[in-house]
Design goal:
Blueprint (H helix, E strand, L loop, with lengths): L1 E3 L2 E3 L23 E6 L1 H4 L9 H15 L4 E6 L2 H24 L15 H21 L4 E7 L2 H4 L1 H16 L2 E7 L12 E2 L2 E2 L2 H15 L4 E6 L19 E2 L19 H14 L3 E6 L9 H6 L6 E3 L9 H17 L2 H17 L1 H18 L4 H7 L3 H17 L7 E8 L2 E9 L2 E6 L5 H12 L2 E6 L4 H15 L8 E3 L6 H4 L8 E5 L2 H10 L13 E5 L5 H13 L8 E7 L6 H12 L3 E4 L1 H5 L19 E7 L2 H11 L4 E5 L3 H10 L4 E4 L18 E3 L7 E3 L5 E8 L19 E2 L9
Parallel strand pairs: 3-4, 3-9, 4-6, 5-6, 9-11, 10-12, 15-16, 15-18, 16-17, 19-20, 19-23, 20-22, 21-22, 23-24
Antiparallel strand pairs: 1-2, 7-8, 11-12, 13-14, 13-28, 14-27, 25-26
Helix pairs in contact: 3-4, 7-8, 11-14, 11-15, 11-16, 12-16, 14-15, 19-20
Function: Bifunctional enzyme that converts glutamate to glutamate 5-semialdehyde, an intermediate in the biosynthesis of proline, ornithine and arginine.
Family: In the C-terminal section; belongs to the gamma-glutamyl phosphate reductase family. In the N-terminal section; belongs to the glutamate 5-kinase family.
Protein name: Delta-1-pyrroline-5-carboxylate synthase
């Protein structure tokens, strides 16, 4: 805890030797000394007369939060000219209205013209008001601010430089936020042609270089430059092909075309880039971002410091491989080529991958052993996750069998005609299956997921981005290498990409222009985080696997214990494992009930009692904390219900719409359960563990979806396809079908072409 003016605040451990900038965004959270440069477009309103108070308040709040974490914050601000212009306009209008009222009458007021206002006068009038506003805002967070006005000449005088440096260090030592601005009241006249709507705005270009100069002089860790554009683009923002550059490296400026400057200010993006590169050379990391966008301006500064993908990050360290954006573009191009292959060619790729899984078994298991040893040494994985991480010869053999199944069933998946309609004479419409586009599959611990998902993407003609957990890095690397080797036989190596950069999952979920569907494979927390983070990209999956087994009064004694044991104990970490066992009330204190309890104890399953079950017992197991719990281990909840109807109601209230089972010999009761339980998979006298793409005959699955649209349950090839419409005509126009036109709609259904018998 540090204190200033008797106000305590929490500090975070921040330390770094200055001299070298951060290499990756993820390191920005270690920045201690930060300069935030606010351009005129950020500080001023759209009419350039006055300040954007809402944005300014949000920026002050973010700076205050970082300051109270123990960081040392400095602000280089524009806005004095705009604030002064507002004040002077008001004074001139008031003065003119009084004179005209005395000499010309009220009728002349509407014809008043406001003279051109000289920028230095505006700065002189606005500087004190701007600082007073900053002081009032920072006071709300118990933070003191101090004003410093400088000119370029101050940096040419060695004594003045030392004085400025000493003043800033002393202010930072006392936990005061310095607010720095060029002294626009005394700067030289602006360059020609810099007039903008009657006001010479001269501060922004100076403030770009000022912020960079201060950042280096003060040995700051991070310079954040806020403007009215998202960052640096590879062509002028707003042009059709403009793409935001995530990371900019020294020497890349030759490949960038600069557009016009912002709506106010002189600097433009070229001046910002020059200043940023100068600061980077001096050892300060730089991010240029948008400080005016209403959806992100409220957290843009804190997002940057947290390492999120915001704006353009300047780095001296160029990664060896492509960026994730480039990988996504490669996957899309490769996916389109893949979709254009003949079905037999796509099947050949999958057969080749299946062969490689068995042929290269020793290398795969050796890589997997490294992952297991690393995980065990670091002790960062729970036992269920360690089981998921582990590969074996039998697992690889099963994978190969599943892949061959996918290859055999994929012959007519892409381009299959599912509807034909004759709209009119010589005008035929077809609906055909096509790939979704680029899939992003994020998976934890399970390296066997990589070849499964790759095979399904190949069969469906989709480009694929894979983001695996670092705990399976060695396994994923070799499996991806084998996948690309298989793809190479038909020249589509780039269709499947493995993201190896330090990309955060949340950042990947923002690539809405590059990714068409996100499929998370992992813990319920991972799925929830992705569903929350996804910005404009649909997410296919389920957040939880709370699966139920209901034991009815007419259940077979022989079937009950076998199905429950398999559902709970065969693989308790799976999302399709039993989590809640519902028992009909009439079965309590019967031999069948005793057999169930004895079996669970033998299997070392920890039992939690539901509220109703606990009320029937004198000495009960620990009462469950929540009936919506996915244990993922040898634990389960037991609850009592009075009827099949109550079992259905319980499942709807506490389940996750994943997989639910009834055990009964009463067909009528079973059919009621099957028809009324609204889950993706509903079974009668079968284990929950059958809820699986391989066991369904899909070869494999990308996951199990509990969504209500597109795909539900285990998702195989069909769930990775969408459709498009093909209309073949002969000089047809809509006007021919009008009331007095020459043609009539037929809308006749046509027979579908025969599917490939193989």
């Amino acid at each position: 805890i540090r204190c200033w003016s008797n106000i305590p605040f929490i500090t975070v451990p921040l330390s770094r030797a200055h001299g070298k900038s951060f290499a990756h965004r993820s390191e920005l959270k270690h920045a201690k000394r930060i300069v935030v440069k606010l351009g005129s477009a950020v500080v001023t309103r759209g009419d350039e007369c006055g300040l954007a108070l809402g944005r300014l308040a949000s920026i002050v709040e973010q700076v205050s939060m970082l300051q109270n974490q123990g960081r040392e914050m400095m602000i280089v601000t524009s806005g004095a000219v705009a604030f002064g212009k507002q004040r002077l306009r008001h004074e001139i209008l008031l003065s003119q209205s009084v004179r005209q009222a005395l000499h010309s009458g009220q009728s002349q007021l509407k014809d008043m013209a406001i003279p051109v206002l000289e920028a230095r006068a505006c700065a002189a009038a606005g500087q004190s008001g701007l600082m007073a506003l900053y002081e009032a805002m920072f006071t709300q967070y118990s933070i003191c601010a101090a004003q410093i006005l400088v000119t370029n000449l101050d940096f040419h005088d060695e004594q003045k430089r030392r004085n400025l440096n000493g003043t800033l260090h002393e202010l930072l030592r006392m936990n005061i936020v310095p607010i720095i601005n060029t002294n626009d009241a005394v700067v030289p006249p602006p360059e020609p042609n810099s007039d903008l709507q009657g006001v010479n705005v001269i501060s922004v270009k100076d403030n770009d270089s000022l912020a960079a100069r201060l950042a280096v002089e003060m040995k700051t860790d991070l310079l954040i430059v806020l403007s009215d554009v998202e960052g640096l683009f590879d062509s002028p923002p707003g042009s059709d092909d403009a793409k935001l550059i995530d990371i900019f490296y020294p020497g890349d400026q030759q490949s960038v075309t600069f557009g016009t400057k912002s709506r106010v200010g002189m600097g433009g993006m070229e001046a910002k880039v020059k200043a940023a590169l100068w600061a980077l050379q001096g050892g300060t990391s730089v991010v240029i971002a948008n400080g005016t966008h209403p959806k992100i301006s409220g957290h843009v500064i804190t997002d940057i410091v947290e390492g999120k993908k915001v704006g353009t990050f300047f780095s001296e360290v160029k990664p060896a491989g492509p960026t994730v954006e480039q990988q996504a573009e490669m996957a899309r191009a490769g996916g389109r080529t893949l979709a254009a292959l003949q079905p037999e060619q796509r099947a050949e790729i999958i057969y080749r991958l299946a062969d490689l899984l068995t042929d290269q078994r020793e290398e795969i298991l050796l890589a997997n052993k490294k992952d297991l040893e690393d995980a065990e040494n670091k002790g960062r994985l729970a036992l269920p996750l360690l089981k998921r991480l582990s590969l074996s010869t039998s697992k690889l053999n099963s994978l190969a069998i599943g892949l061959r199944q996918i290859a055999a069933s994929s012959q007519d998946s892409v381009g299959r005609v599912i509807r034909r309609t004759r709209i009119a004479k010589d005008l035929d419409l077809e609906q055909v299956t096509v790939p979704i586009g680029v899939l992003l599959v994020i998976f934890e611990s399970r390296p066997d997921c990589l070849p499964q998902v790759s095979a399904l993407a190949i069969a469906s003609g989709n480009g694929l981005l894979l983001k695996g957990g670092k705990e399976a890095a060695h396994s994923n690397q070799i499996l991806h290498h084998l996948t690309q080797e298989a793809l190479s036989i038909h020249g589509v190596r780039d269709a499947v990409q493995l993201v190896n950069t330090r990309e955060e999952v949340e950042d990947l979920c923002r690539l809405d222009k590059l990714i068409d569907l996100i499929i998370p494979r992992g813990s319920s927390q991972l799925v929830r985080n992705i569903q929350k983070a996804a910005k404009g990209i649909p997410v296919m999956g389920h957040s939880e696997g709370i699966c139920h087994v209901y034991v009815d009064t007419d259940a077979s004694v022989e079937k009950v214990t076998r199905i429950i044991r398999d559902s709970k104990c065969e693989y308790p970490a799976a999302c399709n494992a039993l989590e809640t066992l519902l028992i009909h009330r009439d079965l309590l204190r019967t031999p069948l009930f005793d057999q169930i309890i004895d079996m669970l104890r033998v299997e070392q399953v920890k039992i939690h009692a539901g509220p109703k079950f606990a009320s029937y017992l004198t000495f009960s197991p620990s009462e469950v904390k929540s009936l919506r719990t996915e244990y993922g281990d040898l634990e389960c909840c037991i609850e009592v219900v009075d009827s099949v109807q109550e079992a259905v109601e319980h499942i709807h209230k506490y389940g996750s719409s994943h997989t639910d089972v009834i055990i009964t010999e009463n067909e009528k009761t079973a059919e009621f359960f099957l028809q009324h339980v609204d889950s993706a998979c509903v079974f009668w006298n079968a284990s929950t563990r059958f809820s699986d793409g391989y066991r369904f005959g899909l070869g494999a699955e990308v996951g199990i979806s509990t969504s209500r649209i597109h795909a539900r349950g285990p998702v195989g090839i069909e769930g990775l396809l969408t459709t498009k419409w093909l209309l073949r005509g002969d000089n047809h126009v809509v006007s021919d079908f009008s009331e007095h036109g020459s043609m009539k709609y037929l809308h006749e259904s046509l027979p579908l072409p025969q599917r490939n018998a193989s």
